[in-house]
Amino acid sequence: MASLARLTYSEEETARLAADLEAILDYVETLGEVNTEGVRPMEHVLPLETPLREDRAVAAMAPDRAVANAPVAKGFAFVVPKVIDGEEEG
Amino acid sequence: MPDSRPLPSVGELRRALDAGELSSVEITEASLERAESIDGSLRAFTGMRSEGARGDAAASDARRVEGKGLSSIDGIPVAIKDNMVMEGEPTTCASRILEGFVSPYTGTAVGKLRAAGAVIVGRTNLDEFAMGSSTEHSCFGATRNPWDLDRAPGGSSGGSAAAVAAGIVPAALGSDTGGSIRQPAAHCGVLGIKPTYGLVSRWGLVAFASSLDQIGVFARDASDAALLLGAIAGHDERDSTSIPEPVPDYRAAQTGDVSDLVIGLPREYFVSDGVDAGVLDAVRAAVAVLEAAGAKVREVSLPHTRYAVATYYLIATAEASSNLARYDGVRYGRRADDPSGLSDMYHRTRSEGFGDEVKRRIMLGTYVLSAGYYDAYYRKAQQVRGLLARDFQGAFRLCDVIATPTCPETAFRLGEKTGDPLAMYLGDIYTVSANLAGIPGVSIPCGQSSGLPVGLQLLGGTLAESTLLRVADAYQRLTDHHEARPTAV
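YS: structure for the whole thing
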């Protein structure tokens, strides 16, 4: 599970986290008491339609500004460690 | 330590500005001085914007001289929670993972405040990524409660609440995903309003749980809150969940009259079990004041209340685990040193950059969204969310406003709940339902229990902010609890 979230835990941290999550999951089990047969899942609070806008070009953020916060950048590109050869799927 | 004094309300500052007794530069200096003098012990701010604020204040004074004042908050110092971006300023979300981040753009709510002439003096402390109820989960250290420095101010917008309570600023912005404006407002003895979902644009608010997050206002009184909310509300095409309705004049609606209103008391909220007796007494006394002023009071029922916290923590953590996937050390913030590869970079950047509570919620959210558990947890929570929303629709057929305690207890001690995440979550029992249903809620001071402030929460139907702020204002015309000042700073 931690790997899905791209997090790493030590053995000690894992034990602690497991205890916390178990207590929380025990608590949320109470929802099992609620009869939800035929209730539509509420995905959103507002009955809004997806708003459409006119199809026209607008100025986007300038590339130099978009990469200004990157830990490592080269030109207008974000630089990351090499991902081919042996490296497991991101 | 300079002898700084707390700033008065927006209304009083505005009168002084209009009368020429004070300039915005003088008011802004007083705000910065107040911060300088007490924020070392309070830690309400993650960073001041002193030079920028001085420049904005001078510009406001120049407008006033030319007779071109922009609005009723022109020249007034305001603080923003440090999860709202402003161009050229850092945004930290109180997280190490955003170390060094400087925003390339300004969010809508902050931009509207600035366009109205408000002077942004600084960014306020929060639980990391707004996840928490105490402002203790911050990489800058905990904010203290101005009423008792050994207590937490509540959270996650605890910095904004403490800054207003201590008179560093007369008003501040916060964000509320499950009570993060109303609960710290209650614990610090100020007003905090969470508007209807979609009233204030979320563009430029760092996302925690996108179907629940909403920006709102802290102020000393309801008339100030009406001015601030009016300034930041309104449709924004950059937020696709923004409501396309005109913004009413909230101040004009504050007539002082509540005789046309029915106030509902949900029987599930007024239980002695687990609720501080002093809190219940203060809330009942506040309802009696409104009843004496002509409002009718009746009991209502919100039968799914006991399931609200579980529903909330499933939905909020699921959305958070997805939203926080973007912090990967590629585009902004910090990256772990010398990664051996891409996967190592992701893992170490996130494990080193996030604090324990954020990681706990990412893990819970990842779990409840995972294949095989999705229906049992996330889908089930969405169904119960629908039932909770239906509870409110039923109740608002019988009443205009629902009155409840904001929190089951007053401000707790620092460290009292950090070891028990579930105990911390259960304190949100009265506030999370409004976020799940998308309805507005306001917390106003209604007295004290053992010397600490108690909050009265008023909930309304969709877009009922005018009614809520009218009731809050009427109550404050008849009482002086909102004038009580903290003594520890």
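YS: worth flagging: Chain B has a mean pLDDT of 96.
IM: good catch. Also The first helix of chain B runs from residue 10 to 18.
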